Structures are given as structure tokens and as C-alpha cells.
Amino acid sequence: xxxxxxxEVMAKTSLGHSSIYKFIAEGTFPKQVSLGAKSVAWVxxxxxxxxxxxxGERGEADVVT
Length: 65
Description:
single chain, alpha+beta, 3-stranded antiparallel sheet, 3 strands
């Protein structure tokens, strides 16, 4: 298991800081893990799973007409 910081989450998802935190608040993006005072990270596999779900939704959207 690997933890990644916000910059890497942003690079992997192509989302900005505010969008990531908005999706977390909506319950649609993996929550961050507290590493201590003012330090958080994300579980990389959870972020990867979220990306794969978005890709899967794209395929489903193409089928539904």
C-alpha cells in the first residue's frame, strides 16, 4: 500500500485542489488519511479505483442512448 500527497493526486486525476475537496465533501472521492498535524495523503489504490470507475462510467454512457 502506498500513500500519495495532494500534488500526485492532482496529477493522476487532472483535478484541481478545490475539485478534489468538493468531491470528498460530496462523498464521491476517496477520503484523505491524516498523517499528523497539517499533513494528509491518499491511498493510491483508492484513487486508482476512483479513476477506473470514471472510465467505466464513460463506457456505460456510450451504451445508453
